[in-house]
Write a structure and sequence with these properties.
heterodimer, A: about 350 residues, alpha+beta, Immunoglobulin-like, 7-stranded mixed sheet, 5-stranded mixed sheet, 21 strands, elongated, B: about 475 residues, alpha/beta, TIM Barrel, 2 domains, 9-stranded mixed sheet, 11 helices, 19 strands, about 30% helix
């Protein structure tokens, strides 16, 4: 009888102790969940692939949210505009909503995708967007398809809003000639631990600067004689076949991606003419085969106040199939009147 | 006669004249073409459309533009007299404002306040009868509680304003009253406009205070269906206002603004800006966004009576066909009395309820339902999108020129088609509707399409069995 009472007492004490212990540990788990550290990664698949010139390749944007709950993601992708033409970018199954429509430009593609609602955030692994690229010229080596620095993954209920910790680019080798599409090719995946690093911007650089990274192949030169046109020639060297991302910190910033040739030479010009002023240019060279990147920056000045228009631009021969018919009619009508007046005047003189 | 003419024979003069004409005519033509080239190069790019019929993108939404706003030109239910016309628009949401100054809802103040929704109920019932849900812009301040009796002023007692909002929500969303689910309650209308009070974000006439007490009223509303409370309903998308509301901590279920923009592409820019601003507030990115009034100008204009307004609307819908606002409200359903240059889709009943061209755009574009296809080569004036549904591929193109007068012959190419026989329907809104057989052998169909100024067309390509 006494033993039974002791057992009941011990059981009661155990329950009494275990309840707060369980509550504490559950609380700890909730605390851990609610304060999950940023751990989301993005990657592009296929990570390696081969595609023929003229064919299209579909690049899937994959997410792994780990412990994070994601509301929306701004996916911003850079690629070599001399190698690829972007055709479209849209959302995929794991991100059912499009918040900002996909836009494609020269060397860039952007879309903002999202979860259905806050009750159904994006979690786990899967595809959130797909980018279609058309290969427009052959390449000696793999061309990187990479995430731009403004890519943003917004988490719900985390300590940090942008929960993106790392991104892994894909790479595509463009073979010449055939019209084979990627759907018929079988990509061979390889592991490429790539990171994109940035260096602090140099503010003490001379107006026109040539820089060389220590113990590296990356150099940067802004052509002085071309700056008056608003579109200076930005060129340099990098490792052969490196993907070179050039960011000009204008308003808005201009980003172009080019591939160094087999000798390591690369060059580009701003897509939009720059107005008078001093600009910083940041160049990052990415070597997909080695998984390393290096960065250089420089400043240059546009002088002469010619910015805003490409003064070296030429007007082509072809007549576009468009126009303001009103202006055309006015010109023809005015010319016709002049001709008639000329004839009448001539006739009158003869009379 | 000068000395040259005196010494030259008439025959020689004629020959010289003809030779001069022959020489200068080609120069004239060349100069004309160059002028056209310069003009077009200076202001835009012609379209060269390619539709990849196998590149399928996301499903197309066709509901977001079936939303309409009605102003308060008359102190009565303005939609009732044109109900059958409104039904034809298949509206999802209809917005009305001037709830408390055009309709005698509130009498008295403080403890003596009483409510009579009977006249406003008539307008809301008409909206329901049209097949839509109401968006109620909580405006303006009831005269009986407003400072100085001026309806664009703050109330004498902010709690009275909270009570007005509470009673309105309970009346329309209350389960034991009108029992309407999913109503959007928008706090005020164009608060930044002098005409509606010149409210600011901060200062003595603070919109956030107006919103705060509206939010308190919403919180006090009992036994209601789900409803949305939001704002700021400004005359444009203004970052200061949006960010102030987003970071206010008050209940915000949706964000709203008005867009009177000449350039349709600005709508996409606005949407991008809004989302970029909201990224630091992830939960806000998932909330509905309402453009509760839109048009090419906020002023009255005879262009609202023309195909200009129709083309503009189609061009805006094209810009928002992917990543759109949740709803965008065409302003407005009906002209006010005596308006010959009003914003209405339909003329006032005293003026014969004339249907204007813009009215027909919405159902025309509904034909584009399906999965979006990849389109490249849009131009400055001619834009469009494509879709596929079952066996039919459709391409909508609109030639909108904000300055008027632009025409264009557009090359159109459908690629990756299955070889076989097709029928091509070329259906211009307000124009021809023709069907022709086409044979595709190499997967490509090339066309040239003349787009008159402010024209809208749907090309419909259907494979024969």
């Amino acid at each position: 009888m006494v033993m039974k009472k002791i057992l009941l007492l011990i059981t009661g004490i155990l329950i009494f102790i275990s309840v707060p212990v369980i509550v504490f540990f559950v609380g700890q788990q909730q605390e851990l969940r609610s304060k999950a550290a940023p751990a989301t990664t993005l990657s592009i698949q296929p990570d390696t692939a081969s595609v023929a010139v003229g064919a299209t390749v579909s690049c899937k944007v994959m997410i792994n949210t780990a412990e994070n709950r994601v509301a929306s993601a701004r996916v911003s992708i850079l690629f070599d505009q001399t190698k690829f033409e972007a055709l479209s970018i849209t959302n995929s199954t794991l991100a059912p909503r499009i918040l900002n429509q996909g836009t494609v430009g020269s060397g860039t593609a952007t879309i903002t995708v999202a979860a259905e609602n806050t009750a159904k955030p994006i979690t786990g692994q899967g595809e959130i967007a797909v980018l279609r690229l058309k290969a427009i010229s052959g390449s000696a080596g793999p061309i990187a398809i990479q995430f731009a620095p403004d890519t943003f993954v917004a988490g719900i209920g985390e300590n940090t809003v942008n929960v993106l910790t790392s991104s892994q680019p894909g790479s595509v080798t463009i073979t010449g000639g055939s019209s084979q599409t990627l759907a018929n090719s079988t990509p061979t995946p390889t592991v490429m631990p790539l990171t994109l690093t940035t260096t602090p911007l140099s503010t003490n650089s001379p107006e026109i600067l040539t820089q060389t990274a220590t113990s590296s192949a990356l150099t940067l030169h802004v052509s002085a004689e071309a700056t008056r046109s608003g579109k200076p020639l930005i060129q340099g060297t990098a490792s052969a076949s490196a993907t070179v991302t050039v960011v000009i910190h204008s308003t808005p910033a201009q980003t172009t991606v080019v591939t160094a040739d087999e000798n390591g030479n690369w060059q580009t010009v701003p897509t939009t003419a720059l107005s008078t002023g001093t600009y910083t240019v940041v160049v990052t060279a990415l070597l997909p085969t080695l998984g390393v990147s290096e960065t250089l920056s420089s400043t240059f000045t546009i002088g002469g106040g010619i910015g805003g228009e490409d003064t070296n631009g030429t007007i082509g021969d072809e007549i576009p199939e468009s126009g303001f018919i009103g202006n055309t009619l006015i010109l023809i009508f005015a010319s016709g009147i002049l001709i008639i007046l000329g004839i009448l005047s001539h006739t009158a003189i003869r009379i | 006669m000068n000395i040259l003419e005196r010494n030259t024979s008439p025959k020689l003069m004629s020959i010289i004249s003809i030779l001069s004409l022959l020489f200068f005519l080609p120069l004239l033509l060349f100069a004309t073409y160059q002028s056209v080239t310069l003009i077009t190069r200076a202001v835009g790019t012609p379209a060269n459309i390619t539709v990849d019929t196998k590149a399928v993108l996301e499903p197309i939404k066709t509901d977001f533009y079936h939303a309409f706003a009605q102003g308060g030109e008359e102190s009565e239910d303005m939609i009732g007299p044109i109900l059958s016309e409104v039904k034809g628009l298949r509206p999802k949401y209809i917005r009305i404002d001037h709830l408390y100054d055009r309709f005698p809802v509130v009498q008295g103040a403080g403890g003596g306040m009483s409510f009579d929704f009977s006249k406003l109920d008539i307008a809301v019932n008409t909206i329901l009868e049209a097949g839509a849900k109401p968006v109620l812009a909580l405006s303006y301040m009831p005269q009986s509680i407003a400072q100085g009796g001026v309806v664009i002023n703050p109330p004498n007692d902010w709690n009275d304003w909270a009570t007005v909002v509470q009673k309105t929500i309970e009346h329309y969303s209350g389960k034991d009253q009108k029992n309407i689910g999913g109503i959007y309650y928008e706090v005020w209308n164009e608060p930044d406009l002098a005409q509606f009070g010149s409210w600011k974000v901060g200062g003595p006439k603070n919109y956030l205070t107006l919103y705060q007490y509206a939010s308190d009223g919403a919180k006090r509303a009992q036994n209601t269906n789900w409803f949305y409370l939001g704002g700021p309903a400004t005359t444009g998308l203004y970052k200061t206002w949006i960010m102030a509301l987003a970071s206010s901590g008050y209940r915000v279920d949706f964000f709203s603004w008005h867009s009177y923009l000449q350039d349709p592409k600005r709508y996409a820019t606005d949407q991008t800006n809004f989302i970029n601003w909201m990224l630091p507030y992830p939960w806000h990115t998932l909330k509905p966004t309402l453009i509760t009034e839109f048009g090419f100008t906020g002023d009255k204009s005879t262009l609202y009576n023309s195909t200009y307004a129709a083309a503009y609307t189609a061009a805006v819908i094209r810009q928002m066909i992917s990543g759109s606002a949740s709803y965008m409200f065409s302003f407005e359903l009906k002209d006010g009395p005596g308006q010959s240059n009003g914003w209405g889709l339909v003329g006032h009943q005293n003026d014969g309820k004339k249907i204007k061209p813009r009215y027909w755009v919405y159902s025309f574009i509904d034909q584009m339902a399906g999965d979006r296809l990849q389109v490249t080569g849009e131009g400055t004036w001619v834009t469009g999108f494509a879709s596929v549904k079952e066996k039919t591929i459709r391409l909508m193109l609109v030639n909108f020129d904000k300055s008027g007068g632009h025409v264009e012959t557009v090359p159109v190419k459908f690629t990756n088609l299955d070889p076989g026989s097709y029928t091509l329907r070329e259906h211009f809104l307000f124009g021809t509707d023709t069907t022709t057989p086409k044979t595709v052998s190499d997967g490509v169909l090339d066309l040239k399409l003349y787009m008159a100024t402010q024209s809208i067309v749907i090309l419909e390509l259907t494979k024969k069995d």
